[in-house]
Design a protein that fits this description.
With 787 residues, the chain is of the alpha/beta class. The protein is 42% helix and 18% strand. The strands form seven sheets. The protein has a five-stranded mixed beta barrel. α22 links the parallel β19 and β20. It is elongated, with a radius of gyration of 50 Å. The N and C termini lie far apart (132 Å).
């Protein structure tokens, strides 16, 4: 055991066999002075990590004391052996003196030598990577495992903490195990680092190669005169030359600046180019001149569509107001134009979609149709954010771009078929588009600049208004298209459908002719509908059969007796007499008289998605069974409640109507054909009262009368909707009298005069009046009723 001064090492570790310089400060200078004063220049070098000394130090000797090249005082020391630190003892000078026990290295076993050979192999491999050939020679000359392990003190890839841990390991085998694990981890890190460096180098080389090739390609194109300007400089010139609003120009210039800073190969450059192309293709300042001749506009509308007077009047009103605003210099007020939003609501086939194109022709504007049926994504309306892959502007922006002007007629087709999905509610996104007070600053998510839609004429179409959200419907002016009368259908078929189907069948007016009588039969007996689609299909079937006859018949078309020439050309005439040969027997015939021939059946009027329709309500009483009411026909909750209300009213007010309430204390069954069609709504209330009253009295309902209205427990007749469609359906079905609620009398003003003249319309406020009007008088064809 020896007593030695302590030399603290803060940033290095001295292992046996190592020679290192130590910069002298107050603590290290005191230790060096104490060692030199003692006469043997021996001291104990101990690493001091985090302010604490380790349990093991290195017994070292001072080789030289002097100054470094920087002028700082320093001492060169050489490690001799490990020493265990004992207790502190007093000594001369300001140094710390401790008792030290020298650690002797035992003879190396065969296992330790095997560990040394493994470590030496890995160390040589590492040094070969670094091309340290002189160090490799020194390592190869080392034969003792302890000497080999302690030489790791020079390794730059080991941290000070790892070297201190190596110093504290007394056994050689432990030192070699630690070094083997550390060098293996270091080699793995080198492999990863070299792979990353190789990938980066290859990527840089590829980028440089592509850049050179592109530069050469650009030079070749320029020499050939085939230069395609695609760079940021070209976009800058295009933006500066384009006629853009100031805010849009500023946004475009900012994007051009980003494009100039971005690499040509970066995805962001492609997104910016696509956005700039979209902005430059928009008709920001292009507008078409409206047709100011109201008479000419009316002629265009009348030529394209028969009837629809409400819509035509509204379009002419819009045009007249716009002309007056332009004459007074009020084209734009406060950033808002005179845009209009019309909602055309009506059954299929009445011409809602084709009306949009006619409006555009009448106004002299561009026309764009936007189909909204089945759209479930809010981004379809407002566009996608540019951060998404494959982002596109919304359908409104695309429609404006397609139209090529800022004031087109945009038809939003099937707006009632919108539905909310996981990606948002597209109907909610339309609120800003269709609000004249907001759409002058419409902002698409893709463009992110204000777009003025105030001068766009929006036309929305829907089959039913009930499925359109209330806030969206509130932003539109609803114009109802309730269907055509038979006279209007004949005019449409003669002027529009027949010529179009002639062309599709490859026929001309010289080949086949048709009379208005035949067109009337087609509309009334073969296609009973609100619109004219089925009528056009029927005409197509007739002309296809005519085409076959003219091509194959040897003695002319049926009903004409005119023989075709050698080429098969002849002339056919479709008449009421031979119409059955083309289309078979009529599909629709008046059935009200047959259905109401027995007591308990009443004719009601209803509205479906396809327009108005006639509804028969049947009631019967069972000879046995508990008193009660059975309802069939797929009735909704509201319609079931109407039946209960009707029965309760008759039971409580039977004597007032000459009805014995006892006859209603039976098992009653009410059925509404067709059973496969769901039905709901309150407007069948008075029809159910009439059917049950007919059953109880044994008096059949008059066959020529139909009715609609909601009933209360007190017998009041409340107003209902769809009056015009229901009365048109009654006219088509051959009814001559109808009963409607008194509070629906203003709705009769919308009924065409031709229909109103042929119908006797009774307005009632009490259901008792309905029963008196609807039931046949006693003895007028009344069947015996065994109630």
């Amino acid at each position: 055991m020896a007593t030695l001064p302590v030399l603290p090492l803060a940033e290095s570790v001295l292992l046996p066999g190592m020679v290192i310089p130590v910069t002298l400060d107050a603590a290290t200078q005191a230790a060096v002075d104490a060692a030199r004063t003692a006469g043997d220049d021996t001291l104990l070098a101990v690493p001091r990590l985090d302010g604490e000394y380790g349990p093991v130090g290195t017994i070292a000797v001072i080789e030289k004391v002097g100054r470094l090249s920087s002028g700082e005082p320093a001492a060169v020391i050489r490690g001799l052996a490990r020493g265990r630190i004992g207790s502190g003892v007093p000594g001369p000078g300001a140094a710390l003196w401790v008792e030290v026990t020298r650690v002797t290295e035992p003879a190396a076993s065969e296992k330790v030598r095997e560990q040394a050979r493994e470590y030496k192999t890995m160390l040589v491999a590492l040094l070969q990577r670094r091309s340290a050939w002189q160090v490799i020679d020194a390592v190869e000359r080392m034969t003792e495992p302890a000497e080999l392990a302690d030489s790791a003190g020079y390794a730059p890839w080991l941290s000070v903490e790892q070297k201190a841990e190596l110093l504290a390991a007394i056994e050689v085998g432990d030192r070699l195990d630690k070094l083997t694990a550390w060098i293996r981890d270091h080699l793995a890190e080198l492999d990863v680092s070299e792979k990353i460096s190789e990938d980066v180098r290859e990527s840089v080389e590829k980028t440089q190669r592509e850049f050179l090739l592109r530069q050469q390609l650009a030079a070749i194109r320029k020499e050939l005169g085939e230069d395609e300007p695609e760079g940021s400089a070209d976009y800058r010139s295009r933006v500066e030359a384009a006629d853009l609003p100031e805010k849009v120009r500023e946004a475009a210039i900012r994007e051009v600046d980003k494009l100039e800073r971005a690499s040509d190969q970066s995805p962001e450059a492609g997104w910016i180019r696509t956005w700039l192309d979209t902005v430059l293709e928009m008709p920001w300042t292009t507008r078409t001149e409206d047709n100011t001749d109201l008479g000419q506009a009316r002629e265009v509308l009348d030529a394209d569509h028969a009837g629809l007077e409400d819509v035509k009047d509204r379009i002419l009103e819009y045009l007249a107001v716009r002309n007056r605003r332009a004459a007074r210099g009020l084209q734009v007020v406060g950033g808002r134009g005179s845009g209009a939003v019309l909602a055309l609501v009506g059954p299929p086939g009445v011409g809602k979609t084709s009306l949009g194109e006619s409006v555009a022709r009448a106004l002299g504007r561009k026309f764009v149709r936007v189909s909204l049926g089945g759209v479930r994504d809010e981004a379809e309306i407002r566009g996608h954010r540019r951060t998404y892959v494959g982002a596109l502007p919304g359908r409104i922006v695309r429609a404006i771009r397609e139209a090529g002007s800022m004031n087109p007629v945009v038809l939003l087709d099937e707006v009632d078929k919108l539905s909310a999905g996981y990606a948002g509610d597209p109907a909610a996104a339309l609120l800003e588009v269709l609000d004249p007070a907001q759409n002058h600053t419409f902002r698409d998510h893709y463009l992110e600049v204000d777009l003025d839609l105030s001068d766009v004429l929006f036309l929305a179409t829907a089959n039913v208004a009930d499925t359109v959200p209330g806030p969206l419907l509130d932003r539109m002016e609803v114009v109802t298209l309730d269907g055509y009368t038979e006279a209007e259908k004949v005019a449409i078929a003669r002027d529009h459908l027949w010529p179009r189907q002639l062309d599709r069948a490859g026929l001309t007016a010289e080949d086949v002719s048709v009379t208005d009588e035949v067109l009337g039969l087609l509309a009334s007996e073969y296609t009973r509908e609100a619109g004219v689609r089925q009528l056009e299909r029927a005409l197509g079937r007739v002309l296809r059969k005519v085409a076959v006859q003219l091509s194959t018949s040897g003695d002319g078309a049926a009903g004409t007796g005119a023989g075709p020439d050698a080429a098969g050309a002849g002339r056919a005439e479709v008449t009421a007499a031979n119409l059955k040969d083309y289309l078979g027997r009529p599909r629709f015939t008046p059935e009200s008289a047959e259905r109401t021939a027995v007591p308990g059946v009443a004719t009601g009027l209803a509205v479906t998605g396809a327009g108005g329709d006639v509804l028969f309500i049947e009631a019967t009483a069972l000879a046995d069974g508990e008193p009660g009411l059975t309802l069939t026909g797929q009735l909704g909750d509201v319609m079931r409640e109407s039946a209960q209300i009707a029965l309760s009213y008759l039971r409580s007010h039977g004597p007032e109507l000459d009805i014995d309430p006892v006859k209603l204390q039976r098992q009653l069954h009410v059925h509404v054909p067709a059973g496969a069609v769901p039905k709901d709504g309150p407007s069948a209330g008075i029809t159910m009262v009439t059917a049950l009253a007919s059953l109880a009295t044994g008096r059949p309902v008059r066959p020529e009368i139909g009715m609609t209205g909601e009933v209360t427990l007190n017998g009041r007749v409340l107003p209902i909707g769809g009056v015009k469609q229901k009365l048109l359906a009654a006219h088509r079905a051959g009814l001559t009298e109808v009963i409607v609620p008194a509070r629906n009398e203003p709705d009769l003003d919308d009924l065409p005069a031709t229909v109103r003249d042929q119908l006797t319309i009774h307005v009632v406020a009490d259901v008792a009046d309905v029963v008196r009007l609807a039931l046949r008088p006693v003895g007028a064809g009344t069947l015996a009723h065994a109630a």
